[in-house]
Amino acid sequence: MLSPNAPYAPAAHIDITDMPVGSPEWNAKRKTYLGGSDAAAILGVSPYATPVELWLEKTGQAAPKPFDPVRERIFARGKKLEPVVLDMVLDKLREQGHDVELLATNKRYTDPDYPFLSCEIDFELMLDGEHINGDCKTVTGFARRKWGEEDSEEVPIEYAAQFMHGLGITRRRKTLVAALIGLDDVAIYWTIADDETIEAMREKSITFWNDHVLAGVAPDTFTFDDVKLLFPVDNGLSIAASPEIAQKVVELEGIKYKIKTLEEREELLKHEIADFINPFSVLLFDGKEICSWKGQNDTRLDMEKFKDEQPELFNQYKRTKVIRVLRIKKAKK
Question: Domain limits at 210?
């Protein structure tokens, strides 16, 4: 179990902060360690990657993420906002009567015992005499629903995994999360170090790195997409089904039939409702809006026209890949 009083100094790590997202240097460096967002993927709680997808990335089997100027601008914009969010949270803490000092920003650390474990800490504070980690997040739209009451530990689970990973490496006891809500309000949340959780996460990360990344053995699949990623091409042979798998095939066939029936009912209801509304745009019941059917712009690339008029460009940018489709054979009556 980790001891908060044990002598400890996290090691510095080569930074990727200034590397363009998706650049060859960025992709290469990302393969050499497990960071905070990786911790969430290993636990299976990341909305961005499963353990299999992470394994493919770390072992160099996934196609490198290409340089994306749009993604780079979004990433750069987030970085530009961090000093603003930091200033806001420092002001808020001082207004609340806390003794606060900014110690560092955007430092990356590596665990001295396990050099493949790394974390980047957005900012570090001396808060009321305690050295703590800090992280800036921008919360907009539907993402707000994933956050609880301010001054609580109710942060999205993928962020909690990231922060707990960082606490395990730095051996500090708290992460203050400065969440920018709107343009002029920053909410404060916390992640408090839990030694048992950190130890369990550390063991999973060590196992993932040693038994999967270094050993070249894929982790267990979480999703159907995972299976497709690991086995994109079939071998053309057959395999006998176990009774359990045969029953699952029957169950899947039944579910697909129910979905088809519901989709047909959905189409019928949409037709009847739209036919009633036309040519109006809003449907009211008891004076309240219950449905709308309004015109809106929909801009798309006309692929057929592009292919006919720009065949050289079309051939330059088209791509062909093997896909596997899971089809259910209907039982003969």
Answer: 11-214
Give the C-alpha separation, 228 to 97, whole Å: 55
Whether residues 117 and 265 fall in one domain = no
Contact 123, 153 (CB under 8 A): no
CATH number, domain containing residue 81: 3.90.320.10
Residue with tokens 């009321």: 128
> Tens-of-pLDDT digits for all 333 residues of the chain?
333 333 334 444 445 555 555 566 656 777 889 999 999 999 998 988 899 999 999 998 886 665 566 656 656 666 777 888 999 999 999 999 999 999 999 999 999 899 999 999 999 999 999 999 999 998 876 667 889 899 999 999 999 999 999 999 999 999 999 998 866 789 999 999 999 999 999 999 999 999 999 999 999 887 777 777 777 777 788 889 999 999 999 999 999 999 999 999 999 999 999 999 989 989 999 999 999 988 877 777 777 887 888 888 878 777 665 555 555 566 655
Q: Which residues pair with 176 in a beta bridge?
A: 134, 190
Q: What DSSP character marks residue 208? A: I
